[in-house]
Amino acid sequence: MSFSAAARLNSVPVALGADPEAAGCLPIPEGSEPTDEALIGRIGTGDEEATTVLFRRYARLVRVVSLRILRDEAEADDLVQELFLFIHNRAAIYDGSKSTVRSWVVQMTFRRAISRRRYLATRGHYKSTELENCLGGVGAVSPPLYDVSIEALFGKEGLKKVMKELTTEQRETLRLYFYEGYTLAEISKELRQSIGNVRHHYYRGLEKLRKQVPESKLPTR
User: Across all residues in the chain, what is the average pLDDT?
Assistant: First the structure.
């Protein structure tokens, strides 16, 4: 990530407010690892330090998903800031019975990025070739699963059961791609496998997941 992009991302916690202690919020002790759900609960009470921790935890993932869809670094950076400001102000709407915090963040990112891309397309932001590439990338197998959320399709327990049907390599590839925001090239390095093998694990894993989804739940295009 470029220096300017990093600076834009780091401006979000600053924009959320001043010193958390001055705002009456308890600081999160160093070395502690609060759960995502605990952070959301604290954000709902106005804890700005919790928002900063959640931002540091998921800003990279949000930016990667946004950039894949928008194909524009400045727009992706703006979406990161807008999303975390929204979370800071509306954390109370999170429902832990429907999804994990990570899945909720990804769902919101995907939907906002798609909406923004459509708006930019109508404004002529993309050249014809860029728009074609953008639509081609987002129209592939993975985004529809993002759109309705893998977890939302199967539920927390159902997802665990379905994931057991995958090989270790397929499961790890999809985890790194969807939940950690890694690119296939980065996964190749992480797993120490060729990019060809990683692509194979990715597409085979997705195909197995899609076979488990009732046809009525598959998104229409």
Answer: 74
The predicted model scores a pTM of 0.56
| 3-state SS record for 20-63 | CCCCCCCCCCCCCCCCHHHHHHHHHCCCHHHHHHHHHHHHHHHH
CB-CB contact of 162 with 120 (8 Å): no
Q: Please give the full DSSP string across 126-154, using - where no structure is assigned.
A: S-HHHHHHHHHHHTSSHHHHHHH-HHHHH
State the average pLDDT over residues 84-93: 93
* pLDDT given at position 58: 92
Q: Which residue, 84, 106, 108, is CA-closest to 8?
A: 84
Sorted by sequence, the CB contacts under 8 Å of residue 195 that are 6+ apart come out as 184, 185, 188
Cβ-contact 99, 151 below 8 angstroms? yes
Would the CA dihedral through 55, 180, 207, 156 be positive or negative?
A: negative
pLDDT reported for residue 30:
52
d(CA 33, CA 49): 13
